[in-house]
What we know:
The structure is a homodimer. By secondary structure, chain A is an alpha+beta fold. Chain A is 20% helix and 43% strand. Chain A contains 2 helices and 6 strands, in the order βαββββαβ. Chain A has helices at 21-35, 91-98; strands at 5-13, 39-46, 53-59, 62-69, 74-81, 102-110. In chain A, a hairpin with a 4-residue loop joins strand 4 (62-69) and strand 5. Chain A starts with a strand and ends with a strand.
Amino acid sequence: IRYAGTHLLIDLWGASKLDDINLIERTLRAGADEAGATILHCHLHHFEPNGGVSGVLVLAESHISIHTWPEASFAALDVFMCGDCDPHKAIPFLQDAFSPNRIDVDEQLRGKDV
Amino acid sequence: IRYAGTHLLIDLWGASKLDDINLIERTLRAGADEAGATILHCHLHHFEPNGGVSGVLVLAESHISIHTWPEASFAALDVFMCGDCDPHKAIPFLQDAFSPNRIDVDEQLRGKDV
């Protein structure tokens, strides 16, 4: 194998609905499906009083995580997938759900030349 | 806040015991504790037949994840913590548990100037 997996570090700025835990779960699941991943486990935690959400999906092909700071309109996501999945396919779902002003995507090839 | 959290991308090379799910759970929990984090949720999945493990700890201060490829003696971890936690303090536990020949650590400040 040339690398173990593609890891996208995705930061959303000026985003909305970052306290909507149901929307977040639906969005992450839809992104995982579209990317071709298999969801093994999902857990989301809703923080009080700010309404922030931390959540993870464990995938057969690695994981997706999200941490939101609604008061700063900021969210940090990781979409890490090995195999034939394409993690980039999750990004349009983030755009549609949270309407960020800006999305920063940093791609890391984990385990290169492993 | 100057940034939302410190995210360490940690790759272990030439590592052993990467199929030992109990050791992995103990190691991640010990690292989280030492870093000053609060564990909210833990889930690990054991893959067959290669014995690889994918796992996540959801923290009050973000998350820790691990994916192991025992057949390649390779593991990819993320230790992402906000607040007063020091994610670097988890690294010696990885060294002790898995005896890697090499550890690569990439530090990303997520949400800088958020």
